[in-house]
Amino acid sequence: MDASIPAALVSRIRGLKSFDPDTTATHASTGAIIWLTGLSGSGKTTIATELANALRRERSGVCVLDGDELRRGVNSDLGFSPEDRTENVRRVAELAKLLAGEGLIVIAALISPFQKDRSNARAIARTAEVDFIEVYLNCPVDVCEHRDPKGLYKRARTGSLVAFTGIDSGYEVPQEPEIVLFTGVQSAGESRAVLLEFLHDRLTRI
Ligand SMILES: Nc1ncnc2c1ncn2[C@@H]1O[C@H](COP(=O)(O)OP(=O)(O)OP(=O)(O)O)[C@@H](O)[C@H]1O
Ligand SMILES: [Mg+2]
Predict the structure, then answer these.
(1) By the 8 A CB rule, do 183 and 159 touch?
(2) Nearest CA to ligand 1 atom 5
(3) Ligand 1 centre from 119 Cα, in Å?
């Protein structure tokens, strides 16, 4: 067990409606979609991975849908025009809905820069009565650019990458996310702990 997760919180996670200590039959569980949105470098993949690892210590049936990986496969035909970004988000939402409908906790991590696309993702989840938890990773663009874990900001600045979110393509700040993580000033561990705490309270209500 991760020593950084308080014992009290762990015991409360055990109380998740979807956590059944006597079986691994997650198909009887209640799924949910945890949708991480934010600029490139805001920490979506980092938090998604850490969150999945933390939840997996307490239950099975957790999966991550990461934007980068999906763009290498299922969405490899899509680019970065507004239309393609919309389709990218729609496909991920449809996949997430199916998986959550099977009882999985689905952590979707993609920039998803446009409000209408995120609203559509939420509406898609609603068609299957799947809980949709929008998590906004609030990190100033200058911090993201300084981190530049994949060198993308540098390429965007030199013009070898066009339509890059935060540089020459817009990011619409979520209007009503379920939770905001201030990943520009917190450590990844702190952000993960805040999100876990929130999810406990939220997931016991579904
Ligand atoms: N509070 C925090 N939460 C998440 N990541 C953080 C935090 N503080 C610092 N970091 C660092 O910021 C970087 C975030 O990179 P990451 O690949 O997770 O971003 P991303 O949002 O997935 O970007 P992209 O959209 O390009 O895939 C990592 O190097 C991570 O260690
Ligand atoms: Mg990522």
Answers:
(1) no
(2) 43
(3) 24
Query: Would you write out the chain's pLDDT as a tens digit for each of its 206 residues?
Result: 444 544 444 434 433 444 444 444 433 468 999 999 999 999 999 999 999 999 999 889 999 999 999 999 999 999 999 999 999 999 999 999 999 999 999 999 999 999 999 999 999 999 999 999 999 999 999 999 999 999 999 999 999 999 999 999 999 999 999 999 999 999 999 999 999 999 998 886 43
Selecting among 18, 42, 112, 191, the annotated active-site residue is 112
| Residue 179's CATH number | 3.40.50.300
Helix axes 82-101, 115-127, angle to 10 degrees: 30
Is pTM beyond 0.85? Reply is yes
Among 124, 126, 134, 145, CA closest to 181: 134
What's the CA-to-centroid distance between 73 and ligand 1, angstroms? 22
The number of distinct structural domains making up the chain is 1
